[in-house]
Amino acid sequence: MSQDELQLELHLAAYSYVDRAKLLADLGTAVDGAGGWMLERRQISPHTFEMCVEVQQQCLPELYAALLGGGLELTRESHRVLAERCNCCNYLPSRRGASTIMTLRLEVQLLSDSQQTANLTPGASLRAATA
């Protein structure tokens, strides 16, 4: 890497209720459409995988939108980190024309609709009991 090129890495977490095959296809298309490169994708557990993506800093807002449009639900901290970095991209001048490459390590948990229903049920029964 040359002195004119900066490398930044962001660690993000997300979850999705979308089917694995559809999600992976949609995310691959989203990353490609936003000008990014899928470097690595690996299985961590039966319901968790990790993606490593590179993108030029000026394309980060497009990638952020594409990830959300691809079916991911980011954690609050991941939204904060991406929003902060996107604001830096938009409002702070790059250092002497440097080509900044961002690396995103994204850990995705796949959840089923039954898990979503189970998570909603206790709150619903609590509200019914107090009403």
Protein described:
The protein is α+β, with helices and mostly antiparallel strands. It has one domain (5-130). 44% of the residues lie in helices and 34% in strands. It is built from 4 helices and 5 strands. The protein has helices spanning 20-33, 60-69, 76-91, 113-130; strands spanning 5-16, 37-45, 48-56, 73-74, 99-110. The protein has a 5-stranded mixed sheet with strand order 2-3-5-1-4. A hairpin with a 2-residue loop joins β2 (37-45) and β3 (48-56). α1 packs antiparallel against α2 (60-69).
Q: Which key features would you list for this structure?
A:
single chain; alpha+beta; 5-stranded mixed beta sheet; 5 strands; 44% helix; disordered N terminus
Describe the main β-sheet briefly: 5 strands, mixed
Overall, the morphology is globular
Give the proportion of residues in helices.
Answer: 40-55%
Mean pLDDT: 80
- Structural class, from helix and strand content? alpha+beta
Strand segment tally:
5
How many H/I helical runs?
A: 4
Return the domain count: 1
Q: Which percent band covers the strand fraction?
A: 25-35%
Low-confidence stretches: 1-5, 116-131
Termini separation comes to 63 Å
Q: Taking Cα atoms only, what radius of gyration do you get, to the nearest Å? A: 18 Å
The side-by-side strand order for the widest beta sheet comes to 2-3-5-1-4
SSE string, helix = H, strand = E?
A: EHEEHEHEH
